[in-house]
Amino acid sequence: MWMKLKPLFPYMRRYWRGYLVGMLCTVVANAVRVQIPRIIGAAGHDMLKAGVSWEKIYHYAGKLIAVAIVYSILLYLMRWILIGISRDIEFDLRNDLFRHLEKQSASYYQEHRTGDIMARMTNDLSAVRMLLGPAIMYTANTVVFSAAALYYLLGISPLLTLAALAPMPLVSILIQYMGRKIHERFERIQAMFSDISAQAQENFSGARLVRAFAQEEAQIGAFERSNREYIRRALRLVRLMGMLWPTLEFMLGLSMVISLLVGGHEVLSHRIGIGQFITFTIFMYMLMWPVIALGYVINLFERGTASVVRIQELLTAEPSIDDRGATVQEGTEIRGEVEFRDLRFAYPAETGEPVEILHGISLKIPAGTSLALVGPTGSGKSTLVSLIPRLFDAPPGSVLVDGRPIRAYPLDTLRGAVGLVPQETFLFSTTIRENIAFGADNAEMSDVLRAAEAAHIREEFEVFPRGFETMVGERGLTLSGGQKQRTALARAAMRDPRILILDDALASVDTYTEERILEELRRVMEGRTTILISHRISTVRNADRIAVLVRGRIAELGTHDELLALNGYYAGLFQKQLLEEELAVSG
Ligand SMILES: Nc1ncnc2c1ncn2[C@@H]1O[C@H](COP(=O)(O)OP(=O)(O)OP(=O)(O)O)[C@@H](O)[C@H]1O
Ligand SMILES: [Mg+2]
After folding, report:
1. Are residues 396 and 254 part of one domain?
2. Ligand 1 neighbour 423 (Cβ under 6 A)
């Protein structure tokens, strides 16, 4: 069990001073506390032998109060210090977790459900905190008090001590056995909790879809089933704990009976005095609570270690995409030439053979030129462009920027040069201004306005009552599909990228607005590399070159006119869209 806690050691080491002081308080506090049975024993002895008087009562009562005050202060310090450390470590751990998760590649979040990750960051983290704080504190307290008590108990009568503690091995076996069970059951509870969190989270994010498909009842039913399973698992733990406590109490009761019987016998045969007998009994009584608490502490430990494992899983997952292969200086200037060299790509598959999506793409996009990508849906266009900023890793040497394999660039440098407007827009729950300025350090308002202008959205936002300070996303206003896309475009333009990639990023914008945006972009992107993905001829016809991607292969490549002359996929698309346009006009 201790080995499972190993990941926590580096964190605990940081606070060794605190632990030291906390332990010192624990030791002194218990050294004071063990005086209580002794004082009462002495009082009993004294008054039985020499009679009761007010003076004596005040004397012993005063002593007890003094002990209680000192003990309370030390107890307070102990809790404050030890529990405080657990909060500090929780803080460190949470930061490290976030930092680590922030570095994971996009594919990581494809393989792990958000709700599960959130559950680990909240529930499991707090279980670890309970382990680091209360569990360690109670353990230290119990160990120190028991050791001190044992010292006095043995001093009074070794025989009596042995007899009274005889049921203890049983208690220890019971606790070990139950501990294992608790651990197993708790792990299954946490796994189920992760499931429930993920389910709830997906339903909240997908609220629109669920309503549109009238799936509320079905979802409620599914959630209820998961929730019931969670409770069923929780109840199994409750039953176990419910058995553990009374069993412990029973064994301790047994202990008390033994010490009464054997102790009484010892008193009758004059081997120990009545005062010693009183002291002994009180000690036994005081030992009860720590031993019972041990059951609780074991529970905390078992929960905590189960959670440490789950958190450790997050912390040890190596980011699959990092700077390992970087050979180029950070901040190296990138001109913007992009080349694919016999690029074959398959998404990492969790099970079975990975399916190849791109089959040997060779294509060079000179710096400062524009390339348009068209092709049937699912042909691999988004996949191809996502390899440039290394959202997924292509085989080494198959994607080059400025003639160098992209893995040679530090991620920051590479990604700093690429502005990607993804097919699916994502906005943060913050203001429009901050959404646009995302990722651009110390951005001025004037830059934000310029970017918004390039994306042809400035005026639309300016008529909002709060303008660019309007909150959007989950906590604010919902933008229209086209407004979202243009916000994302402004965000990319804001970074002044050497390579701008628009992945079908104007699909929700009407053709008239699109034309204006493209015109503006051509001006802004003068001398920079642009990659445009679209299903619309109107979007792509003015690009320097157009590539047609069909089932992961480049089927056609050339200018608008060249491709029309080929009479292939592109020419067909053109004819169809021309026809549609004419129909629309005449209709
Ligand atoms: N993250 C992923 N993991 C596994 N497979 C993926 C992933 N993303 C896309 N695919 C698969 O790769 C293929 C190409 O998808 P891609 O998104 O590149 O197509 P696309 O050309 O952009 O299509 P569209 O025009 O509809 O946007 C599809 O068969 C898709 O199922
Ligand atoms: Mg796509």
Report:
1. no
2. yes
